[in-house]
C-alpha cells in the first residue's frame, strides 16, 4: 500500500474508531512513516548522549538490489508479516504473508496490551500499517525465495501500463524477456515481480504463481476489508479489548466513501492519489481539518525533535539535546518501532514456531 492508504485511510479509520483529530493525525503519520524511516545509524548529541533509532524501510524502494534489500529485520516485521501456512509443502512458505492471519491478529493484540505506553499511539499507527499490508502483500514473502517469482500478470486498467512492458524496463538484464523469468540468482524479494500492482487500490489483476496456479485479485475489495478490520483494531485499542475482531468496524457510510475514492482515484502515482484523498476528507467526509504529512525537512517529526545539526563529526552529524526530545513524536515513534519489532521477531513469531532473527 502507498501513502494514500497508509496516511489518509488510516486517519479515517482512527476517526471512525472514536479518536479526535490530533490523536488520529499522530496515528496516521506513524502509519505512513513506517515506509519513510530509512536510517538506522545512531543519533549523537552535543552532551555525549546517543539515541539508537530503528530502520523500518529502505531508501528508494529498489527491488533490483536483491541482496542489499534482503533484511529480515525490516521486511518481516514491518511489511511482509509471515502467515504461517504451508500449502505447497515448502518450509519457507511459512514466511508467506496472509491477510488477517492468526499471526497478524496476535500482533494487533500485542499492540492493544501496550495501549498505556507513552508511545502507544505511535505503536497503533505502526501496527495498522503492518496489518493493512497483510492484505496488500498477501501471497508474497519478505525473503528472496522462488515463491515470489510470479509471471503473466494481466489487468484491464487504462491507468496502469502493462506488466511485461514495465518489468522489462525496471529490471533490465535481471529479467529474461524471452522466457519471462528472472535470471539466475536474481530471485524477487517481496512483491518485486508484481511491481506496484498489489498496492494500487483501484486495480483488479491476475497472475500465475511459481507453482503454475492462477490467482485473481480485486484490490478494492481487499483494501475495504483491511480498512474495516483496522477500524475494529483501533476501536478495541481505545477500550483495551484484546478480542478486537468482535468489535464494531466501519459504518456503511464510511465504507461507501472509502470505496468511492478507491474506484475514483486511479492515478498510478500514490502522491497524486494522496492529494485527492486530502481534498475528499474535507469535501466528502466533512472533516473541518485534515492531517498533514511532512516526512523530512522543517515541520517534519524528525526536524521538530532534532532541529539542525550543530556540529559535524567523523561519526556523523551532532545535534543539541533538549528536554523536549524525550517527549517528541519522532522519538516516541522509534520507541514504538523497537517495541513492535521485538514483539514480532522475539515473541510472536517464535510462538508460532518461526525464527526470523
TrEMBL record:
UniProt xrefs under InterPro entries: DUF6765
Protein name: Uncharacterized protein
Highest taxon of the lineage: Bacteria
Lineage: Bacteria, Pseudomonadati, Thermodesulfobacteriota, Desulfovibrionia, Desulfovibrionales
A Pfam family the protein falls into: DUF6765
Species whose genome carries this gene: Desulfobaculum bizertense DSM 18034
